[in-house]
Amino acid sequence: MNFEFTEEQEQLRRTMREFAESEIGPHVMEWDEAAHFPSELLPKLAELNLFGVIFPEKYGGAGLGYVEYCIVVEELSRVDASVGITVAAHVSLCSNHIYMLGTEAQRQKYLVPLARGEKLGCWSLTEPEAGSDAGGTRTTAVAQSDHWVLNGVKTFTTNGHYADIGVVMA
Questions:
Q1: pTM for the model
Q2: Residue among 97, 82, 67, 92 nearest 169 (CA)
Q3: Which of 54, 71, 73, 152 is the most exposed place for a label (fewest CB within 10 A)?
Q4: What is the pLDDT of residues 28-67, one digit of tens each?
């Protein structure tokens, strides 16, 4: 087996490293000390199609694979882990659940703006009694005619303060 990156993957790594060092690096200490969420960075991340890196182009994504996705998150996190986890939570925890388990109508309604970076996604799992043990959560989701009723308590929602679309683990 050959575990070396392709030339395209190496180019992606160089591009992401240059982006992270020039766009994030100069501000990282200021953002951290001020507990500032860099929402001004989101359009730049969207322009690079990072919010849709693993999704097919028909949903507004870049159509790349998981190796490329890992390169993106690794290079962002190398400079600022909070930016890396923002992208990772958006892609893996929110958008990917809609892509994998949603209907075509849900993909069009939710995934397309998420993949294009027009909306930011969040994920909610952690509960007071269960922590992040998905098998121990007590939140319920009950279908009632044309909507769902959620009951429960979540204590942490990744990207929750700034998100437009969320996935709740019930």
A1: 0.91
A2: 97
A3: 152
A4: 999 999 999 999 999 999 999 999 999 999 999 999 999 9
